[in-house]
Amino acid sequence: MSTAENSILGLIMPTDPRWADLASVSLEEILTDHAFCEQKAATQCISLIQLYPDKTELINALSPIVTEEWGHFRMVWAEMKKRGYLMGPQRKDNYVNLLIQHTPKNLHRDDKLLHKLITCALIEARSCERFRLLSEGWEEVTMRNFYYKFMVSEAGHYRLFIDLAEQYYPVEKVRSAWKQWLEIEMLVLQQLAPRGDRMH
Ligand SMILES: [Fe+2]
Ligand SMILES: [Fe+2]
Prior knowledge:
The protein is mainly alpha-helical. It has one domain (27-191): Ferritin. 75% of the residues lie in helices and 0% in strands. The chain has eight helices and no strands. It is globular. The protein binds fe (ii) ion (2 copies). The site of one fe (ii) ion (FE2) has 5 residues, from helix 7.
């Protein structure tokens, strides 16, 4: 992905160029991890709706995303079944776990929401960038198209989380939190060696 495309997504650190090559070693491994990521994306939206039942705009915006993310899981699972792959045991997402450890502690729930929305946007932006790499790198045309669809969809989710944050907080506050999280994400990525069996 070019620097210009990364800047559309707002990311400052491009993915390690070795990652797409590592991912291409085993479609089974990368699809399995992707399936777990989509499950987590759906449950994260459900959990935001459960935590903030007083925020009507949030419920309106995120309830269709739950359906969409679950649809993504079903698309990945269908591809896995077609190829005879199994889900296997649950996997830890070190990237997401390390990232959310940086959420400031002891915040009021209304202030915590800003960080939750920004980290969701960040994970969507990073996923979008990685789907782009997979959509360009795969030899099989059906898999290129498969990953292209995810890239487009996750780009929309990235925008949606930013827009939602801007509904509840001043634009300047959202921008400054986004910048802060980009720096954190850069440090997290630097801590993690690129793995072909992980989406992140
Ligand atoms: Fe998704
Ligand atoms: Fe998403």
